[in-house]
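go over my protein:
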Amino acid sequence: MMRTNDGGPRRIVVISTGGTIASRWQGTGYAADASGSDVLATAPLPEGVTVEVVDLFNVNSSRMTSAHQLALLRTVHETFADPGVDGIVVTHGTDTLEETAFLLDLHHSDARPVVLTGAQRPFGTGDGDGPGNLYDALQVAASVRELGVLVVFDGRVHAARGTVKTQTLAADAFSDPSAERLGRVGFSRVDVERLPERPAPLALPDAALTAAPGAGGPGTAPLPRVDIVTHHADGDPLFIRAALAAGARGIVLEATGAGNATPEITAAVADAVAQGVLVAVSTRVPAGPLAEIYTGGGAVDLVAAGALLTGTLRAAQARIAVLAALLAEGDGAPDPARRSALLRRLLEGPVRVEPALATGGSRSASAVATRA
């Protein structure tokens, strides 16, 4: 389906957070320091679009923290409290854009769009891609509704869920290795090729109301620690135990294959679950779903130990799902069963796997068949 900006008045708010799109040469390398207004000045505006800029913070996205992301989430909700706003564009570094986009999407209940974009080449360079990406993002924000949070990059429109950075330097930096793009943008129109599958949105967590990047000390409630542990040849439970010792309330195991590890790691996962820690299992393989196929420390045993498989979500976004489930609990009494059920719902999404490989899986073969 085609969505066209009819040229009617559209009021878009650009929230600037830094990244390559705002990075200038610092003598030894690039770092984010250009303001949102400076970034906006490099791009033409689509017809009928007026823009207001919010300079929220200015960081390289490799330095992004949960506090930054929650402050952005709060700002998005505050911005949409104004019914005159038609959409939001967030300029963001590409390194952790996929995590921020997914966190926003899990908490996004408004019909109006939030569009994240950035650049692979720095601010002010002659061949910079930032101005074109920003123009496209504004065009999408002025044209679509009911699609949740989107990533717009290099003329492509992606759903937040499942989209990851797949190119370190190339202009087409993002894709969902397990799904098709959502659409494309160009020539003053947006073509939407499919609709995203999204779980019911979460309420704004209490932690977002007070999140302040860089704040700490007495009286500041720490955010839940969620760690990622990668399995590999010679992998052992050491880093799972280290995460527990550091106070992790959630762990994402980046397993091999379709979700496999070792009996020793499985035992450590069972210990973590017994301590009330949420454990999710993703994979280091770029594409495809997880499935309960193997025992001997494989996904069959990990699920039996209490871990949840992440479908087609990879580790960074799976970590965000775990964090969101923990934040949704707030300051209330811990309820491991409710928390686990919520995480399961957040992890559910498109499943593209042959039914023959889904036997014994955490999703039934019939459900797989109907979604394939």
In short: The radius of gyration is 21 Å.
